[in-house]
Write a structure and sequence with these properties.
By secondary structure, this protein is of the alpha+beta class. The protein is 37% helix and 24% strand. The strands form two sheets. Strands 1, 2, 3, 4, 5, 6 and 11 form a seven-stranded mixed β-sheet that branches. It has a four-stranded antiparallel β-sheet with strand order 8-9-7-10. Helix 2 (102-117) packs across helix 3 (124-134). The longest helix is centred in the last third of the chain and has 20 residues, at 221-240. Bound molecules: (3R)-3-hydroxy-3-methyl-5-(phosphonooxy)pentanoic acid. (3R)-3-hydroxy-3-methyl-5-(phosphonooxy)pentanoic acid is lined by residues 14, 17-19, 33, 103-104, 135-137, 184-185, 275-276.
Amino acid sequence: MPEQVTVSAAANIALIKYWGKTGAPGNQPATGSLSIGIDDLRTMTRLRFADADTDIIESDLDEQAAARIRAFFDDIRNHLEINRNFAVTTGNNFPTGAGLASSASGFAALALAVNALCDLQLSGTELSRLARSGSGSAARSIFEGYVELIPADDAWAQQIMAADAWPLDVLVAVTDAAPKTIGSSEAMRRTAATSDYYGRWLDSHAADMVEAKQALADRDFNRLAEVSERNCLKMHATMMTSRPPIIYWQPATLAVMQRVRELRMAGTAAFFTVDAGAQVKVVCEPGATSAVADALDLPGISNLIRTRVGGAPRVDST
Ligand code: PMV
């Protein structure tokens, strides 16, 4: 067994969203979802066995994030019968907890690291389930490219298509790098319990999945654009109508969305999506990316990250 492993996993962005859980343990999603891996937004994690009789978290994380990692290790000890403590160092190369999928890349990286350190030889499906027990969207970050999460009693993700089968670019417009005021699990709970639209969200979801998968198979950019924007707006409409309402957007979030819609109406191949935060991700055909980036020079955008669909996990054992 290696003494120490260093891994990295990429964030992913949902085009068809996961918003709502079944209530069963382990973040079982109420619906399927479809995502793209994001090449340059990564969590780097180093893991070794701890000599101490507790887990050691050597990173600058808030209490809540550290508690989630400890709970993840407890779960692993229970389910995989590993009688060891861990020392972990982890960090992101992008703002944490701001709706940029840090929990997805973070728990995918932890699952990969435990698998390598303990030489568990888990399959992709098993790794995906393990990552999901830390955070629902993390199930998808085990794979690069275009990825689908299958809802089931023990949900898992699988790759639909490699990134190089349809190379698209992604611009991330950071409008507010501060951590979000309400975490996604609590926000999902509130939405399911109080939004009048949650039932419709669930009922109309399967059709969006079918449409998006067909658009991928046909490499039909406009069809993917329309279903992705619609699904994103539906998720936000559902959470905005919770009691009390959940509104992650900032004025600049809406400004970017409007600008992207104008561009597409004028024939530019670009569409937006927004997860549980204020940042807007813009998916572009590579030929359009520079023009879109120029058009996003808007007030309130503190950073524009230029990247692409990809995000293969990396594992180094020493
Ligand atoms: O996995 P979580 O708890 O971070 O929830 C992710 C929720 C969204 O990012 C809004 C949607 C998704 O499918 O990733």
